[in-house]
C-alpha cells in the first residue's frame, strides 16, 4: 500500500482534467495519479488523426513527460473507502484528499505505441474503403464525416443519426447548417434512424463490405463503419462505495460550488463526471482542474477557512464543430456561426500547441516544437 502523511492527493483519471490537476499540484503535494493508460491524450484531435495519424505524435503524451514530481499508478480504480483507493492490480493507495476525474467510459490500450498503432489502422481502413458508414450525428460523427469527405470526395459516406437533427447539443440553426454543408459535399445523412450498435459491432471499423439495416428498414452498404454514439460517464466503479449516494440519475457526481463531492471536506470531482450544469467540454474540464488546484493548495496549507475556497461558476459553453480543415459551425454564447470564420475560432492545430504549453511540454519526441 502507498501510505500517506497528511498531504497526499490522489487523482483518479488521467484525462484532460486529471492530468492538468496532477501537473499543477505536483510541486505542492504528494501527488499520485491513477490511470489505466501510461499516457495523456488530447481527445479532440482523434477524429483528424484517423485520416492523418502523424498529428497524434504530439497529442498522445506519456504521463512521465509532464509529471516529473508525482507518482503514477497504471491501473484502474475499482473501489474506494474514506481513506484508500483500491486498484485493478490489487494495489491500494491511501489518500488525504481525493479527486475523481474519470470522465467517460472508454477502453484504450495501456501503452503509447499501441495507441498510435490504432490510428494507423483506422487510416488504412478508411483508405481501403470506397464506402464508409458513420453511426451517430453528434460532434464526433459530424466531424468524422466531414474529414473523410474532404480528404476523399469520391468515397460514399453515409451518416445515420437517431435524432431529428444533427448536433443536438447545438442550436437548430447550427444543426441545419451542418446538415446543409454535409449534403452539399454528397454525404448521405439519414435522420431519425438508428442502427443496432451491437449488430454493427462496437469496434472502430471492420474490413469488407457489409449490409446494415436501419430502424426504418433502409439498407446501407459500407466497407467500414465507425460508431460515434455518446459514451456513458465512468462512475460505475463508485457504485456501492461511500460515494455512491452522490451519483445522480445520469451517473454524474453531484458537486458543490467548490467542486467538492456532496459536501465532503476532502473529496472533489472535476471534468465530464461532474453534474455541473454546462456542456461537457475539455476547456471547461481544465477550468475545473484549476479551481480545485487552487482549493487544494489552500487546504494543504491549513485547514483553510471555508469562505476562502474558490468557487466554480458554470458557463455557457462555446462549442465549435469542425467541417474539414477550413470550415466549422460554432455556437458562441450569443450566436451561431458557420463557414470560414468559426474555422478560425478553432485554430488549424486544434489547440494542440496551447494544450501542450498548459501541460508544460516543450518540443516533441521527434524534436519539433
Ligand atoms: C472526439 C472528441 C472531440 C471533442 N472536441 C472538443 C473540443 O473541440 N473542445 C473541447 O473543449 N472539448 C471537446 N471534447 C470534449 C472533451 O474531450 C471532454 O470534455 C474532456 O476530455 C473531458 O475531460 P475529463 O478529464 O473529464 O475526462 P476524459 O478526458 O474522458 O478522461 C478520463 C480519464 O479517466 C480515466 N479513467 C476512466 N475510468 C477510470 C478508472 N476507473 N480508474 C482510473 N482512471 C480511469 C481514463 O483512462 C481517462 O484517462 C471532445 C471530445 C471528443 C471525444
From TrEMBL:
Location of the FAD/NAD(P)-binding domain: 8-278
A Gene Ontology term for the protein's cellular component: cytoplasm
Single Gene Ontology MF annotation: flavin adenine dinucleotide binding
Signal peptide positions on this chain: none
Spans traversing the lipid bilayer: none
SUPFAM superfamilies tied to this protein: FAD/NAD(P)-binding domain
InterPro entries (alphabetical): FAD/NAD-bd_sf (IPR036188), FAD/NAD-binding_dom (IPR023753)
Domain of life: Eukaryota
Record's function text: Putative FAD-dependent oxidoreductase.
Protein name as annotated: FAD/NAD(P)-binding domain-containing protein
Annotated source species: Triticum aestivum (Wheat)
Name of the gene: LOC123094623
Amino acid at each position: 500500500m502507498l501510505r500517506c502523511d497528511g498531504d497526499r492527493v490522489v487523482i483518479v483519471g488521467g484525462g484532460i482534467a486529471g492530468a492538468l490537476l496532477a501537473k499543477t499540484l505536483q510541486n505542492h503535494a504528494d501527488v499520485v495519479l491513477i490511470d489505466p493508460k501510461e499516457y495523456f491524450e488530447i481527445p479532440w484531435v482523434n477524429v483528424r488523426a484517423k485520416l492523418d495519424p502523424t498529428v497524434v505524435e504530439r497529442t498522445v503524451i506519456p504521463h512521465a513527460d509532464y509529471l516529473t514530481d508525482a507518482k503514477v499508478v497504471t491501473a484502474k480504480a475499482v473501489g474506494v473507502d474514506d481513506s484508500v483507493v483500491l486498484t485493478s492490480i490489487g494495489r491500494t493507495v491511501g489518500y488525504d484528499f481525493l479527486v475523481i476525474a474519470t470522465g467517460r467510459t472508454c477502453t484504450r490500450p495501456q501503452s503509447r505505441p499501441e495507441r498510435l498503432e490504432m490510428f494507423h489502422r483506422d487510416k488504412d481502413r478508411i483508405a481501403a474503403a470506397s464506402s464508409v458508414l458513420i453511426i451517430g450525428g453528434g460532434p464526433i460523427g459530424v466531424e468524422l464525416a466531414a474529414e473523410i469527405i474532404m480528404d476523399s470526395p469520391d468515397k460514399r459516406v453515409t451518416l445515420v443519426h437517431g435524432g431529428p437533427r444533427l448536433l443536438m447539443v447545438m442550436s437548430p440553426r447550427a444543426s441545419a447548417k451542418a446538415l446543409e454543408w454535409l449534403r452539399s459535399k454528397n454525404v448521405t445523412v439519414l435522420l431519425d434512424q438508428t442502427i443496432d450498435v451491437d449488430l454493427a459491432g462496437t469496434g472502430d471499423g471492420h474490413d469488407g463490405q457489409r449490409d446494415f439495416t436501419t430502424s426504418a428498414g433502409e439498407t446501407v452498404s459500407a466497407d467500414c463503419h465507425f460508431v460515434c454514439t455518446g459514451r456513458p460517464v465512468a462512475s460505475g466503479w463508485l457504485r456501492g462505495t461511500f460515494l455512491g449516494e452522490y451519483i445522480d440519475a445520469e451517473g454524474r457526481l453531484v458537486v458543490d460550488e467548490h467542486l467538492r463531492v456532496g459536501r465532503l471536506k476532502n473529496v472533489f470531482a472535476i471534468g465530464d463526471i461532474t453534474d455541473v450544469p454546462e456542456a461537457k467540454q475539455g476547456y471547461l474540464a481544465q477550468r475545473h482542474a484549476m479551481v480545485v488546484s487552487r482549493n487544494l493548495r489552500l487546504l494543504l496549507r491549513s485547514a483553510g477557512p471555508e469562505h476562502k475556497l474558490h468557487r466554480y461558476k458554470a458557463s455557457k459553453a462555446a462549442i465549435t464543430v469542425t467541417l474539414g480543415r477550413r470550415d466549422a459551425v460554432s455556437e458562441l454564447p450569443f450566436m451561431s456561426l458557420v463557414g470560414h470564420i468559426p474555422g478560425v475560432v478553432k485554430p488549424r492545430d486544434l489547440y494542440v500547441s496551447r494544450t501542450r504549453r498548459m501541460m508544460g511540454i516543450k518540443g516533441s519526441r521527434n524534436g519539433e516544437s
